[in-house]
Amino acid sequence: MDQRTDSNPYKANSRRNASDLDYMPGFGNDFETEALPGALPQGMNSPQKCAYGLYGEQLSGTAFTAPSHQNERTWCYRIRPSVRHTSRFSKIELPFWKSAPNICEDVISLGQYRWDPVPHSGLDLTWLTGMHTMTTAGDVNTQVGMASHIYLVTKSMEDEYFYSADSELLVVPQEGFLRFCTELGVIELEPGEIAILPRGLVYRVEVIEGPARGFVCENYGQKFELPGRGPIGANCMANRRDFKTPVAHFEDREVVSTLTVKWCGRFHETKIGHSPLDVVAWHGNYAPCKYDLSTYCPIGAVLFDHPDPSIFTVLTAPSGVPGTANIDFVLFRERWMVAENTFRPPWYHKNIMSELMGNIYGQYDAKPQGFVPGGMSLHNMMLPHGPDKNAFEGASNADLKAEKLDNTMSFMFETRFPQQLTEFAAKEAPLQDDYIDCWNTLEKRFDGTPEGTWDKAGKKK
Ligand SMILES: [Fe+2]
User: What value does the CA radius of gyration of the chain take, rounded to a whole number of Å?
Assistant: First the structure.
């Protein structure tokens, strides 16, 4: 039984246990699963003839020679080999899905930006046509950096499939309920959960309950992994067992289908005569998974001060520089605030990393107003930011008793690379023109005396 308490407003209507889908617990485990008895070879990968007339095929997520602790691959036993799931390609346009480098000359990416939720348009949009890029960073062709997207999805993909050769996708739903039918099994996903879709994985996205809106971090670089916990030890933050990987599920459907491939920032289409989701059994450690954010066990200050926000890292995608992530996925969720004699919200800062935030639900403590569920903000490389006037005054004058921050779940896609705004983000999405003004009314508190302009009651003299 779930003993945790939290205030996820979606929980009351949760469909999480409504279906009879099966998942296997663990992060990066060597899983094995079969949808038909005896379909999975035992003791070897490549028998002379596979059971059920299946084809054996390896899907490699890392180079063959990657170090063993990073090496990821999955053996698939499928109705047809993947080479039968593509034919000749033609290029297609998905005008709102951009890849780095995507630098718009007439857009200024240097600035603190915030957006209201991007509204639904009334158009029928699928996972592909509904993907709207907000920022890009790095270079997709050299497999460094990332893109952030907002998806607005109202329509299921029908006999349509997709894979990204460019990237791994981290999906963060904010509204609606989606089903990801993948080669390696089915994931159903609702707000409060996240999913990881590995590079090269073929899938179709269905809308179970729409419209659906959410955020996607497209990771061009090395895969997401769990951060090192250092002296925290073996537990807390994101625990491995709370990640769920689907069991094998296959389709044997002979129907004209379209497969779209994202490759080097371009979209390519190919026609095939059947569903490519035909993996009957598989084993390996390269697979999609989902994670319930309410199982994230936050660590924080128990006496004074405020740790760096990296204390809230859920997943990290390393770059070549130790400790300097290509992307960190960071979660600001419900938690107790107990620090004594401390300014409790995030402090003012300026740093090398570029921070794109999104609000899944509730109110964020550093910005009591204006940063609303479905909304996003961007604090780019070496641009100062921090609490607004209300948050500063409130926290500076608060009675510092133990306080539960409730009804709050925001996240950050943080990258070592500067994030460039797309045309869509700068000109079409609902940008708040006055966001920068939230710091304008911060007053000078210095008057040459040690107490500044605060009086003994903490108010202005
Ligand atoms: Fe920040």
Answer: 23
